[in-house]
Structure formats: C-alpha cells, structure tokens
C-alpha cells in the first residue's frame, strides 16, 4: 500500500497494541482435535481472511500504523517479544482487556496451557499511535472479522520486559517461548 510504512523504528512510547479478535481459538481447536478431546461446547478455529482487516486499517490509519504482526506462531505473548525486540521498548499487556472466549479459557485451565501463547490463525496485531487507537478499533469492529477487536496493551519505556497486568492489578512477566506449546499446526 502506498504511504504505509511499518517498522519498529516508527514505534513511540505510548503507542497502543490492538488485536483484531479473541486469542487462543485456533490453538485450542487444533489441540482438541488432535487429542480427540470432546467438550460440551464448540471449539472453532479463528482462521479467517485478514485482507478486510488490513484494508480497513490502511483506510483509516495508514500513516499512523507503526507495526503489524501475525500471531500465528506463539500467539500474542510471542508478538509481545517481537515488538520488544523491534522497538527496544517494553510491552505491557492489560490482562482483562485481552479477549479470550470462555471455552478457550476453560480448556486452557484444564490442560495447563496459557491462551496468550497459543496460535491465532485469523488475527492480526497492530501497533498504532495512541490518538488513533479508538478510530482503528471502531473501524475493525464494524467488520465481522474484527467484531471482537480490543486494545490490549501499550509500549512503555524502562521496563525491558513483556508484562501482563492481571485482573487483580499484579504483574506477570511473560517469558519468551523456548518451544512451541503445540507442534507445528500448518
């Protein structure tokens, strides 16, 4: 796209991290299928065409878009580490703001997985200027693929970590994955 330049060098303190929808769906759907696990709820992959989301983002935020990432391998937490490396800034995720479906959360609790580290096949993570975050969220939420988009964090200076602020206000360091929690999916 003309006029769109995504690069870690463009990131600024206070930029917001936005995810286009719920996280962990694809990883849990594949895990349950591979292991032959049956649940009373339907677990579906989030696999989706990202073109409408990208097109809408460029239309409303092209010049303000700083970074764009795909959370397929290693999920949102791994994207946090990619952002940290690309920008030199810390990433602070707001745990309660991260959209995770109840069935995904339940399966992860039962099996000992963290949805923040699971594959998201039909999601995109964008870093945008603080003043443009609401505009992008509104634009994405008008699309079926972005109906559950959320602002999940921001870039900060001086922490040198990827951090999750919990619903109780505590902080948890999100370590970088050494191994993928699930063998290669696709």
Return Rg in Å.
Answer: 16 Å
Low-confidence stretches: none
The strand line-up of the biggest sheet is: 2-4-1-5-3-6-7
Number of continuous helical runs:
5
Gross geometry: globular
SSE succession: EHHEHEHEHEEE
Helix content: 25-40%
Q: Give the helix/strand class.
A: alpha+beta
User: β content, as a range?
Assistant: 15-25%
- How many runs of DSSP E, i.e. beta strands? 7
Structural write-up:
29% of the residues lie in helices and 17% in strands. The chain is built from 5 helices and 7 strands; from the N terminus they run E-H-H-E-H-E-H-E-H-E-E-E. Strands 2-4-1-5-3-6-7 form a 7-stranded mixed beta sheet, with helices on both faces. The mean pLDDT is 84. Helix 2 packs antiparallel against helix 5. With 186 residues, it is α+β, with helices and mostly antiparallel strands.
Relevant terms:
186 residues, alpha+beta, 7-stranded mixed beta sheet, globular
